[in-house]
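Sanity check

After download, print the first record. It should look like this:
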Amino acid sequence: MGAMRILVIEDEERIADFIKRGLEGAGYLVDTAADGQSGLDRLHELDYDLLVLDLMLPDMDGLKVLEKVRNRKVSPPVLILSARSEVEDRVRGLEVGADDYLVKPFAFEELLARVKALLRRGQPVPERLVAGDLVVDCLRRKVTRAGRPIELAPKEFSILEYLVRNRGKPLTRTMIVEHVWDMEYDGLTNIVDVYIRHLRAKIDDPFEFKMIRTIRGTGYMLEADDGASGPGPASS
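Expected structure tokens:
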């Protein structure tokens, strides 16, 4: 599964830019629109996994945009941003069909936490991720490789799940830290190497085909042996 795509409809360029940079740093694909109409046009052109919508737009009320979004057959989860902290506005937004509400000014960590929660909720998350002979059961948090159960610590599981969801795509240490630890902290990036070593010992060392690849100067990538390079342990 590729990266999640998010549309940000926000007319204040500084804020739109701040959100875009932050979310891209967390591994999302982000498009921005400066007014309601161009935002709606973008929604017609592409399928988005999440919409971040400012209520105060130059051409139409954000709630109007929200209504139009909700009238479509398939519409993404919507996170409303607003400087109006009055309860009525919040209630109206949620009544019209927003999934969550964030009042400006906000810390980026808060926005990222809400975005992650909405994507988890709004996405039909596959309960089982399969990569070659590796099976990750996201609901029960169980992992098997070639039918053999593998015990993982919670953070090890989160890193593996992130790698499997982005299989074939290099992930930087910073992306892994921000996804798994929910924070931006460069000092943590070396901890990723420690956890990857633990993961490799469990899911790679006992097997011939090594799934976790080191991408020099970048980070790590999960590669699945799907039969392209001969039968893996799954066929034995």
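If your output differs, re-run the checksum step. Summary of this record's structure: Helices lie at 13-25, 36-45, 62-70, 87-96, 108-122, 154-165, 173-180, 189-203.
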